[in-house]
Amino acid sequence: MKHFKAMITITLRKSILDVQGKTVEHALHSTNFTTIEHVRIGKYVELTVHAEHAEAALSIVDDACKNIIANPIMEDHHIVLEEISIGEPA
Asked: pLDDT category, 74, cuts 50, 70, 90?
């Protein structure tokens, strides 16, 4: 069994207003960061998964995102996998 670190980025779908992102964008503009636009705020999750191969690990993590970690109605998720040694921390 191999060990993989999954790095998951979760963002609101583009069609959903990101109120937190808009608030941060307004704060940036009011403090002279006027060249910054289109601020979106998201979540980042790291976890370790044990699987026979990368495709199986990706499938497990994707299922976990669709069922528990992310809200598939409002959020998109992107997964990056990295094979790790058993002694490495996640």
From this structure: very high
